Amino acid sequence: MLRGTCLCGSVSVEVTGPIEHQPEACHCRMCRKQSGHVLAAVNVRRDALSVGGEQHIRWYRSSDKIERGFCSECGSTLFWKPTIEDYQLTAVAMGLFDGPTGLHLSKHTFVGDKGDYYEITDGLPQSDSY
């Protein structure tokens, strides 16, 4: 089970089911703007995700298809999710989790949008899309 909080502790998350996917690092322009660098997140089934402090979550619709959640108190990046009604996954920012996760980045996406101030040298797969 994974647990964590935002920076101020107003929002808490708990993953109660198995993690079916390994986290990914997204380098797209919007994820970079939201997170301040790269968004590392793991997709979690919505029915396996418990969230506390929902009154502190604000959602920003960054496109016709995507919403991004953040803490209204401290500004921490929390979530990324498609607005598709039946979509069953929410991407949870890896930085929220406390303690060891046992997870490992699996790939880098949208690397064509990455900042020019860093290189990706970890040998993981890279793509220009999702």
TrEMBL record:
Domain CENP-V/GFA: 2-119
Gene3D superfamilies tied to this protein: glutathione-dependent formaldehyde- activating enzyme (gfa) (3.90.1590.10)
Matching InterPro entries: CENP-V/GFA, Mss4-like_sf
Record has Lyase as a keyword: yes
Keyword annotations of the record: Lyase, Metal-binding, Zinc
Keyword Metal-binding: yes
Family: Belongs to the Gfa family.
Name of the protein described by the UniProt record: GFA family protein
Species the sequence originates in: Sinorhizobium garamanticum
